[in-house]
Structure prediction request, 554 residues.
Amino acid sequence: FCFITHSSHQMLSRLLPRNLKTANFRKLALPSAVFNHTPRSQFSAATQKKEPFSVRLQRLEAQALMGGGQNRIDTQHSKGKLTARERIDVLLDPNSFIEYDKFVEHRCVDFGLEKQKIPGDGVVTGEGTINGRPVFIFSQDFTVFGGALSETHAEKICKIMDKAMLVGAPVIGLNDSGGARIQEGVAALAGYAEVFQRNVMASGVIPQLSLIMGPCAGGAVYSPAITDYIFMVKNTSHLFVTGPNVVKTVTHEEVTQEQLGGAKTHTSKSGVAHLALDNEMEALAAMRTFFDFIPLSNKEQPPRRVTADSMHRQDSVLDELVPADPNTPYDMRDVLQRVVDDSNFFEIMPDFAKNILIGFARMEGRTVGVVANQPKELAGCLDIDASVKAARFVRFCDCFNIPVITFVDVPGFLPGTAQEYGGIIRHGAKLLYAYAECTVPKLTVITRKAYGGAYDVMSSKHLRGDVNYAWDTAEIAVMGAKGAVEIIFRNKNVEEETANYEKNFSNPMSAARRGFVDDIIKPSTTRTRLCRDLQMLRNKELYNPEKKHGNIPL
Prediction:
């Protein structure tokens, strides 16, 4: 799966079995000065004058390849981390990487930095391919000034981002940096702002993906935050605005780096990151897999994969999957895996807001985005985190021409003071807004409950849903029978009226009579119906009113 160049083979073969165990590198046949990390400025002027250009070029290339030198590379490996170039070797197709600006050096003359110049200046940039599809990439090199961003470091990143926008190809950033290079002062801060501006301009135009492979602190965190997806590595990558020492000084809280900004924190508590992987090899492999689901730009369609999974396949297990008792939970993942191609569902943010599922799958080989309530968690209720999680996902799919399939089993919004004080009205409106403005094909399947305002929000027909189905187990109503009867009849003839309410309203027929669902279908036919609908909607064209931009309730 992962492609490894010859120069990295020995090290990487040892990393695979034992979670990136430290490996000893065979030194390349390069000048000894390179391994001793001798900055270019320390070579005497007389030596450089006598040295032929071809020899000097070879030496500078060797220096660039070795980054901060063998000692620092060994330190990087001892932490279970790959170097910037090794990461690129693993992520990209063999021999596809073309490097830009290998010889760029910083321009700082303060604090003695003029005597410490290393070609590349702490970041490797260029372009290559993943499974034959183009991508631009930057990989920060922690062995050079701790990966700290300088003015020229930022210029290198900006160059590949500009080129990616020009040709319409994704950008992947491999972040491993201590932050801004303090010696450069405001020039480094300006460099960050230049990167941020390009992140914003590229948003919705080309996919932007981030891999956090080490520290990412201070202002540096806002570039990954603007990108579409963030993958982190457990125990070795960290994201935070202020570190543990500052937190202790200001708030007197004792907290470790891992607790404050580790992969587990950001994938289960804050929702900043989307996936946490056990080691760098797994993170890079996951990124390669993920890359195959997304298009190159907003002008492209997602790639298609050949599949032997027939659109006519019907799974009878679905007919019995939803429990007869409406209060009994079931795992919505079972539904998804029985509907999509080859049971392959690439879930995003599996540990955050578990009451809603989001991720990518394929139908007849074509990418679809999937949003689904999860009855196993909070009965599938929508809350603040679930609303924000799903809204961002729907908007990404809308940006990049990916149809959205929504599976609904939602009893409503989660009640309670914590939700109300936290702004469930505003955050819930984000999901409504995302579905309402979405113009890609939208298909909805109501598997069981669709109650109250949550029914409207979850890609209902009223929000320009293209095809809306209900299983014969579905209940579409303002609320459950018991609550409705207590309000309407004020506790009079409760049992009798509850039975009448269930007969008349605890089924999808009322909605079907009004055309709010297009059909009531047998669960086992779901895959076939959705595949046919996606074929029909392939050339859908829908445009929102002309405007500068909407004002989503952020």
Notes: DSSP finds 22 helices and 17 strands in the chain. Confidence is low (pLDDT under 50) at residues 1-12, 14-38. The two ends are 40 Å apart (CA to CA).
